[in-house]
């Protein structure tokens, strides 16, 4: 009887122990620690590409050069190079006035391949800032996008950069755009390589001077007639004045003669 009571008591004690939270924590395995994952990297920003056609259409004016680029599809070659952010491109763009200074036959006589070469001759397949031209001039002649032997010579004359081809030596007039990988510089002359032009192309004829407008120095017939009328009127007035003066003098003489007769 005493043994069964002891067994029941022991069973009750064990039940109480197993039901307590402390024992439950001791008997259950520890929960795994939360795993912290590193933050995912932000996506790289898309590279900014300069639209050369849009840039040349709003700057300048460079409409003639842009029309030639689009006509020959050279604009696509330049744009592909501009999108290559590792090397970039440098483009020399003649103004519209530079093309207008040459005869139209200068470019109409070129074949399509020659015209394309002429346009490629106006670019370097590398980005160059204005500050880099001074060091670049020591490497003259410099190969252009047209390849060898289409080269240019660069000269830094006290900060003024000159780009020399066979038949022209224009100065960089302004920096249109110069942020890597794209540099665009304006020229006041077209670059003309001797491989395409055996002699200096003729200039366009100078425009005829506008006729001078203004009154002629010769008097008009109406004016002469008016002057004649005015002159005639003046002459008649002078004659009348002279006749009146003579009449007064005669009257004075007659009065004097009468006085003398009275004295006598």
TrEMBL record:
The keyword Glycoprotein applies. Residues 211-228 have a biased composition (Low complexity). It holds the Pfam family Fasciclin. It is found in: Cell membrane. SMART domains: FAS1. PROSITE patterns: FAS1. InterPro entries: FAS1_dom_sf (IPR036378), FAS1_domain (IPR000782), FLA_A (IPR045003). Residues 1-24 form the signal peptide. Keywords: Cell membrane, Glycoprotein, GPI-anchor, Lipoprotein, Membrane, Signal. Gene3D superfamilies: FAS1 domain. GO terms for cellular component: plasma membrane; side of membrane. Residues 203-230 are annotated as: Disordered. Its main location: membrane. Residues 49-191 form the FAS1 domain. It is a lipid-anchor; GPI-anchor. The keyword Membrane applies. May be a cell surface adhesion protein. Belongs to the fasciclin-like AGP family. This is FAS1 domain-containing protein. It comes from Urochloa decumbens. The lineage of its organism: Eukaryota, Viridiplantae, Streptophyta, Embryophyta, Tracheophyta.
């Amino acid at each position: 009887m005493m043994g069964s009571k002891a067994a029941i008591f022991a069973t009750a004690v064990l039940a109480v122990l197993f039901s307590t939270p402390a024992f439950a924590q001791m008997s259950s395995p520890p929960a795994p620690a939360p795993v912290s994952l590193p933050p995912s990297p932000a996506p790289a920003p898309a590279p900014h590409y300069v639209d050369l056609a849009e840039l040349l259409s709003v700057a300048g004016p460079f409409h003639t050069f842009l029309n030639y680029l689009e006509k020959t599809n050279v604009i696509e070659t330049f744009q592909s190079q501009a999108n290559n952010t590792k090397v970039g491109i440098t483009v020399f763009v003649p103004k519209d006035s530079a093309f207008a200074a040459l005869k139209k036959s200068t470019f109409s006589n070129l074949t399509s391949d020659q015209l394309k070469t002429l346009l490629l001759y106006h670019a370097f397949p590398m980005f160059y800032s204005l500050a880099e031209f001074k060091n670049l001039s020591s490497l003259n002649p410099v190969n252009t996008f047209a390849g060898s032997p289409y080269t240019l010579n660069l000269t830094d004359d006290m900060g003024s950069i000159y780009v020399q081809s066979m038949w022209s030596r224009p100065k960089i007039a302004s920096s249109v755009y110069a942020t890597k990988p794209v540099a665009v510089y304006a020229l006041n002359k077209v670059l003309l390589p001797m491989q395409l032009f055996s002699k200096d192309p003729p200039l366009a004829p100078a425009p005829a001077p506008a006729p001078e407008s203004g009154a002629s120095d010769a008097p008009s017939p109406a004016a002469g007639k008016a002057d004649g009328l005015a002159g005639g009127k003046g002459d008649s007035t002078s004659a009348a004045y002279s006749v009146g003066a003579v009449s007064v003098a005669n009257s004075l003489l007659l009065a004097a003669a009468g006085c003398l007769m009275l004295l006598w």
